[in-house]
Amino acid sequence: QVQLVESGGGLVQAGGSLRLSCAASKSIFSGSILNWYRQAPGKQRELVARDTRGGDTNYADSVKGRFTISRDNAKNQVYLQMNSLKPEDTAVYYCNAVVYTGAEFWGQGTQVTVSS
Question: Could you tell me which of 49, 47, 40, 34 has the C-alpha nearest to residue 96?
Answer without folding.
Answer: 34
